[in-house]
Amino acid sequence: MRLKGCGMGKKRKKIAFFGMGLTSRYKRGLTRVFTLVAEELDLDLVVFNTYGRIGNDSSLSDDYELDFLSCIDLDQFDGIVFDGDGYAIDGAPDLVEAKLRQAKCPVVSISTHVEGFYNIDFRDAGGLRMMVEHLIDHHHLTKIGFMSGYLTHPDAQSRLEEFQTVMREHGLPENGVGMFEGDFWYNKGMEAARYFLSLPERPEAIVCANDYMAISLCNALRKLGIRIPDEIAVTGFDGSIEGQEFLPHLTSVTRERMDVARKSLGLLVKIIDGEDPAGIDLTVSPKAIYGQSCGCEPLDYEHVLDIVARVHDEQRLTGTKITSLEVAMLRMNQTYTVREMERVFAEKVTNFGDYNSFFLMVHVDENGIPSYSGEYTKPSGKFQPAIWIDKKKEYIHSSRTTGINDLIPEADSERSHVYYVMGVRCADMLFGYSIVEMTGKEIFDEFYNVWMMDLGMTINDVRKNDRISKLINKLEGLSVTDDLTGMLNRRGFEDKSRSTIMEFSNRRMVCTIVIDMDGLKRINDVYGHYEGDRAIKALAEMIKRSCENGEIAGRVGGDEFYIFAVDYSERCLERFIKHMKEYAAEFNASNGAGYQLDFSYGSYLTEMDAFGKIEEYLKISDGRMYEQKMTKPGRRK
């Protein structure tokens, strides 16, 4: 990718970011800070996003997503950021890690520790300690429960261990009044609430291993008549936007995403510039947020009203987006070509956020046939643009194919860019990938995911329709084509001649010619039917080569051929027969099979209008052909 204005002609550094489910509110905040820091450092950032878990059915995502990894050549990047925590599909982190181990550039893991990569070290233990010690030292609570994430997850394990350590240090039971294994999501709140309320010793506070479980638990406790924080205080972890907008606002601890972005991208820049990474601080310390759910922050009614108003605005906006989505999807699903898809996308697809550019790059096979064609075979590792929307005219438009080492279109621009790249597919067919560059610092919302799915399904429909159309054309061709010679058969000759005559607006000079091979029976009897077929094909080829003036020719019987010509003359007819005789002489001179190929013909040249009967003229030509045949020595059929 060629970019100008990078200072003394230097090429701008290009960093890849690999994540999953980046449209969630937490991940959107993460990508936003990476966008801001990339701009600060004058970097190009290419974010590879995947849908992640679709609903609760991970089977919809496994193979559906990750085979796009094979299309990415890591050599085009100067550095890579890996967010392994976002890959919520079983086995997905291992697949991505295996891919990234092929990289020659440095790789930084920002959420999980990966041997062989540079790793951002989160002091999660320090954050969990803040929560527990705040409840003990500030609020003087000792009956504390713990709601863990699923215990096979390393974050859940480390947070539980720190909870137990802090409790022991304060002379309290290491599991407090009780420990419940949650799911890091909203599904276990009521089950957890019933568990804690059933304990012999009711907790005064419950520490949750993340905000989502804390929100779910708070909702469940309120449904069961428990006042928060008056009867039970609740804390979370991660400092999510949801937790701060929830009522009561969660006491939590943030992972300081801006610090993560600055340290990971800063490290990559230093390594790329040749600096020694030894001794660079890659630790990120948490920051506590003391809110209403533990009793530290009083309820601010003005703030509550602001949140309620914002929620109502978001609901209205979502309703508007859904309506526009319905209209645009109906329009998109009425398209039959990628050109129509491009027009509908540019005009109607406006509900996922403002963007500068959008490109759909599709696979081509080794013959250059795009993946939306019914004739496409398999990917060749090359792509070509199918949809090209460049609102600021910053990109050099080219219809040429590009390789996996050059995924992003070439830009003529002096600013840094942030691109989001996703595979576009339907069922088991990967058609290619999309690239979107948003206008502001925010990533697109969930409606973009819907559009990528709809694009995949629409392209699949285009491909199926193209295959069906080609199959119908092939079947129609078979119904009007002679298998042996490839010429029109009787039906094809009649259909094409009739349609030509129907277009006549006045009388025109036409010619009919009937040609019949001489001695075919003898060739079959003496030399075999294979040689007879060879002779028929040779005669057919002579006729096709002699048709120089728009003649319509067809094989209408075993060795009988019809020719129909419009705007013909005696000179055209003489030229046609002259060529036929020359081609026959050439064949006979080189034919070593022992027979001479010859033919008889009859013709009729006359004026004709749209009501003329070609059958009558062919009958006259046939009679003249027969008369000529009968004059030949031996009169062999």
Offer a few descriptive terms.
637 residues; alpha/beta; Rossmann fold; Alpha-Beta Plaits; 10-stranded mixed beta sheet; 17 helices; 22 strands; disordered N terminus
Walkthrough of the structure:
- Helix 10 runs parallel beside helix 12.
- This protein has 3 domains: 14-119 and 305-466, no CATH class; 122-259 and 284-299, 3-Layer(aba) Sandwich (Rossmann fold), CATH 3.40.50.2300; 490-630, Alpha-Beta Plaits (2-Layer Sandwich), CATH 3.30.70.270.
- The protein contains 17 helices and 22 strands.
- The radius of gyration is 38 Å and the shape is elongated.
- With 637 residues, the chain is an alpha/beta fold.
- Strand 17 (418-426) and strand 18 (429-438) form a beta hairpin.
- It is 41% helix and 19% strand.
List the helices and strands and how they pair.
Blueprint: E1 14-18, H1 25-40, E2 44-48, H2 62-66, E3 79-82, H3 92-100, E4 107-109, E5 118-119, E6 121-122, H4 124-138, E7 144-148, H5 154-169, E8 178-181, H6 189-197, E9 205-208, H7 211-223, E10 233-235, H8 241-245, E11 252-254, H9 257-272, E12 283-284, E13 287-289, H10 301-332, H11 338-348, E14 355-364, E15 382-390, E16 402-403, E17 418-426, E18 429-438, H12 446-480, H13 490-502, E19 508-518, H14 520-527, H15 529-546, E20 552-555, E21 560-566, H16 570-590, E22 598-608, H17 614-630
Parallel strand pairs: 1-2, 1-3, 2-17, 3-4, 4-5, 6-12, 7-8, 7-9, 9-10
Antiparallel strand pairs: 11-13, 14-15, 14-18, 15-16, 17-18, 19-21, 19-22, 20-21
Helix pairs in contact: 1-9, 4-5, 6-7, 10-11, 10-12, 14-15, 15-16
